[in-house]
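Repro:
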Amino acid sequence: MIGPKARTGRQGLWFFLPAAVFLTVVLIYPLVYSLYASFTNMRLTSPITRFVGLDTYALVLSSELFRSSVWITVVFLSCAITLEFLIGFGLALSFRAMRHTHPVMRALLMLPLMATPVSVGLVWKLMLNSDFGIVAYAGQQLGFGNILWLADPFFSMVSVIAMDVWQWTPFMFLILLAGLEGLPEDVFEAAEVDGSGALDQLLHVTLPLMSRIIVIALAFRVMFAIATFDTVFVLTKGGPARATDLITLLIQREGLVNLNVALASAMSFLVLLMVTVFSAFTFKKVLANG
């Protein structure tokens, strides 16, 4: 005789089975296969695949293209996320001060976040076009001349950063505003009684209370931003002269254009390792200080 608990457990397994199959097919199998490929010399243009151990990883680490893409990605992440935090925190402070602001204003700030990456890249490509783009036209009217936003290495990186800031600042704003609205009011009232000004309250009350939320917001944004591909691919395709060749674009080019599956897999796992170490260190520090 099967008891009711055992029968319920079996029914639960049947409900779990579709999710397990989905995770295996979509996530686990590709991950394991990619890990296997990273230890081989697999290339879709070659019929012979053999195990080479860590040689592929050594080849990646010695590659000037890989080191250059990592550096470009670091510059992109540092500039974009710093600006997103500063603008998002400033907006969050403003909205916290305007407690009776109509919620429509908050909803409007979320619009860039809801746009699809490809459409964002296309819109920015049109705006930055040196012949008819509105940004180029505004620059000419302001006396800056005809800036080649997508043809100059420096300005192309500026364009990519500006596009990312425009799209992802609402994400930072939303998290920081939620954290600010959850702070205890009595602490600020006590600070006002002690004669603290707005700047003193920001530096000595708000920021210390918000430190954990700020670190978590920055950590999540880094994890999302390192996977940036669609918008940059549509806007610049990594050019000009590889000035915006993020690590994701390099991996895509090696795997889908050069058909070097082993090299692309090794690069992917090295990036995954870096992100995992960064995330583990960050969240460990946050939990330790909490």
